[in-house]
């Protein structure tokens, strides 16, 4: 018989810290290492459905028709970035077949022989491809109910042999399309700020792309844990692909709002770096993922961030947005410096961005 105590003992071995093995062992209780403190569990209760608050949905179909149509899309992005910090895009140009293949690639990797997956296991961040349970497991009070693998896809793509065969082609193909979409989004966000189209790209916001694929196994007691704890992203923007199971929520006007899955849509959220650079004009949205008895849930997050890779660019509030009435609210930073502190803090429900306020 598999008991919670025996599973907890297994979890103390780094190589055993992946949830898929625990689920396959048919556990019926959440191991204590993944349990949330009572105050966090209380925070899980208040939320509203998308019918009460609607996450903005922006259609890119008319974007290239004429200047008026583009201005309409820019205005919708501006409103979403200022009021929500998140929106969904449809007709974005990434083929449905590419979206499906990257999700399938995540499943294919997790269906691999345990020894194959174990060869990629790490709780660090070095390497072109790493597989882990929780990057924050040793800095937070509890683990999250998910397994993940990640790779840096830009500016220096990995060698093909560095990626597992199960997801190699899907990661390269999806990243190619995300970089193209990201270029367009940074243009539109620049215009939404009243700046030239190329401003954000000229400030090296596209200097790095970190692709993180999450695998949320079914949870026997979803009320006792979270798939991902409340946090904001240490990115400029994040492009997220989620499957149809759901569970992603954002904090809006002190309410947790479901980000309802839309077939073929991509979720775009503003990250900490862009909130800092826009001097609070755009919002880095707090979000979380609920655990679920149904699964596995698959999501693919593309972080526009050089993370802890070398990047000497110094970022701060964009000078063109400042004035006597709107002085800088944040100190300058480099991405590796910010990311190091963000990771050390862990996903503890607090914002690391606040530490850079003047």
From TrEMBL:
Keywords recorded for this protein, A-Z: Iron, Metal-binding, Oxidoreductase
One Pfam family it belongs to: 2OG-FeII_Oxy
Gene Ontology MF: a single term: metal ion binding
Segments traversing the membrane: none
Keyword Metal-binding: yes
Gene3D superfamilies given in the database record: B-lactam Antibiotic, Isopenicillin N Synthase, Chain (2.60.120.330)
Protein family (similarity comment): Belongs to the iron/ascorbate-dependent oxidoreductase family.
Protein name: Fe2OG dioxygenase domain-containing protein
Lineage summary: Eukaryota, Viridiplantae, Streptophyta, Embryophyta, Tracheophyta
């Amino acid at each position: 018989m598999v008991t919670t105590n025996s599973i907890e003992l297994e979890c103390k071995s780094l190589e055993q810290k992946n949830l898929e093995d625990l689920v396959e062992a048919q556990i019926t209780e959440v191991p204590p290492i993944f349990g949330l403190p009572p105050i966090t569990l209380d925070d899980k209760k208040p939320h509203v459905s998308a019918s009460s608050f609607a996450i903005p949905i922006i259609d890119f179909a008319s974007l290239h028709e004429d200047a008026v149509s583009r201005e309409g899309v820019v205005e919708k992005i501006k409103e979403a970035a200022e009021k929500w910090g998140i929106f969904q895009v449809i007709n974005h140009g990434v083929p449905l077949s590419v979206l499906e293949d990257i999700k399938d690639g995540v499943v294919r990797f997790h269906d691999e022989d345990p020894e194959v997956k174990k060869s990629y296991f790490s709780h660090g961040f070095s390497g072109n491809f790493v597989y882990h349970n929780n990057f924050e497991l040793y800095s937070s009070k509890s683990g999250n109910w998910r397994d993940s693998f990640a790779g840096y896809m830009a500016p220096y793509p990995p060698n093909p042999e560095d990626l597992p065969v199960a997801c190699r082609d899907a990661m390269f193909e999806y990243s190619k399309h995300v970089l193209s979409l990201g270029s367009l989004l940074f243009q539109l966000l620049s215009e939404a700020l009243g700046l030239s189209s190329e401003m954000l790209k000229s400030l090296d916001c596209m200097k790095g792309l970190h692709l993180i694929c999450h695998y949320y196994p079914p949870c026997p007691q979803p009320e006792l844990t979270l798939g991902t704890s409340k946090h904001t992203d240490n990115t400029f923007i994040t492009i997220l692909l989620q499957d149809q199971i759901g569970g992603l929520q954002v904090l809006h006007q002190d309410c947790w709002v479901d980000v309802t899955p839309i077939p073929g849509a991509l979720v775009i959220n503003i990250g900490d770096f862009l909130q800092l650079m826009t001097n609070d004009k755009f919002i880095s949205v707090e979000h979380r993922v609920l655990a679920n008895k149904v699964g596995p849930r698959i999501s693919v997050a593309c972080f526009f961030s050089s993370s802890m890779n070398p990047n000497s660019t110094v970022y701060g509030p964009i000078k063109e947005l400042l004035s006597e009435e709107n002085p800088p609210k944040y100190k300058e930073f480099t991405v590796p410096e910010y990311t190091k502190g963000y990771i050390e803090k862990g996903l503890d429900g607090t914002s690391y961005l606040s530490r850079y306020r003047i």
